[in-house]
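Aim 2 progress update. The chain analyzed this quarter is reproduced below.
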Amino acid sequence: MRVDWYEAEVRELEAKAAPSGAVLFYGSSSIRLWSTLQQDFPDVEVVNRGFGGSTLAACVWFFERLVTPCRPRSIVFYAGDNDLGDGQSPSEVVGSLRGLLDKRDQQLGPVPLLFLSVKPSLARWTIRERLERFNELAKAEVLARQ
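Predicted structure tokens:
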């Protein structure tokens, strides 16, 4: 897996202060581009650790650098559609989700994780059945691990 093209953005995120105990939003560009996050959750301390175009596999790779140091009280997570768009099967992408949940369990303990289901955007409309299957599998995996 190539992750070097994310390095500059990951370093920028690492340099940003993140208060311990905040709600951490993590994942691909759907999170990164959420410019109104603080306004949308005015009564909650939030941290945005989304990075552009990332795959779920890349989110697993950078977990120790972007999530663990924040010591979040909970995680809101979105990724997976880029992996599916790159040709991975729903089962393969759920394997990456298991890796992310394993890292959460090992490094943070029972921190709640809210998984946002992947969206069937126009750009991914031709693979919507795979997106739907992934969402089903991901839901089962997250619920089994809560």
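Strands lie at 23-27, 46-50, 74-78, 113-115. The chain has a mean pLDDT of 94. These observations will guide the mutagenesis experiments scheduled for the next reporting period.
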